[in-house]
Amino acid sequence: MSRCLSERGIDHVVLERGLVANSWRTERWDSLRLLTPNWQSRLPGYGYHGDHPDGFRTMPETIAFISGYAGAISAPVETHTCVTVVRRTDSGYEVATDRGDWRCRSVVIASGACNVARVPAFANALPPHIATLSALHYRNPDQLEDGGVLVVGASATGTQLADEIHRSGRPVTISAGEHIRMPRMYRGKDISWWMDAAGVWDERYDQVEDIVRARKLPSLQLTGSDARTTLDLNALTDSGVKLVGRLAGVSNGKAQFSGSLRNQCALSDLKMARLLDTIDAWASENGLDNEVEAPSRLPPTRVEDSPPLTLDLTGRAIRTIIWATGFRPDYSWLQVPAMDRKGYIRHDGGVADSPGMYVMGMQFLRRRKSALIDGAGDDARDLSAHLAAYLDR
CA-CA distance, 313 to 61, in Å (whole number)? Predict the structure, then answer.
């Protein structure tokens, strides 16, 4: 957004509570890599020019990429500036920080969607000997006590953490609710290549039948690795990870799991098949069938005949629970009457329900790829045009 505003000659400042790429520096686990290939980190006037376009950036590489971009575009960043309040004024907005106040005619909220971990209320009923960590605070298995680990959530974060913790020698159980299964490679190319080429990532928010539902979908069950392997529930169970259903509650020291595991897995397999059908159709329409591998499908997700519905937590079999149950934004500092009853900013494709306010970086904001690095540029171009027109008026 800063780059797009500069191109339009709009004076602005970027306020950052820590250093550039602060969330990547302080709220990610050590071994995490981006889920999208290097070539897909495309920002206005900036991209990947290394020798491994099909690789996946580590966290230090991601931090260097974003910091390098800020330097390359001479972004007017005020670091170590924590915003404490944003409120409307007669002429625009007042932004209070721990280093002084700002006044502006327009404001862009680009603070991200993953500020606060979603932890169910029944976590308070866990036995006191069980340690708990959210994905925001997990760094590596050395943090954990010896003994079994229950990972709650089976999207990209949950499956990666379950795999890493199991490789550390600890018994792992993963609790799976709604998830979207996906192969890392399909017909000889990365799944992201197909979604990019076939226009899946570019699907717009106003082309989707139920955008509210689409914005709540979990992340794709992917991992970024040099081996480019598929990390799904079958891969986890093959390695020895125990699979159970969605964690529905805790009562009398027992974890209670939903009986819908088989249905959830079947639905996930169905969604994956639909996407692959879309890709196959696009490949045929564009004459690629003879240039890539033949279509194929992963075997169905395997679920045991009678998955356990309870797990006794009073013993010592489970010593740690990792909450990989998603995140929500933190708008505790936003004192603008543009919030819905669930605490989210009301907006239409990033144009907030408050004149001159805009939102960036949220799930499916304007396109399916909006929450990816690759999606920021297109969204910023659209929203900066709207912002410029607003200022002109």
Answer: 40
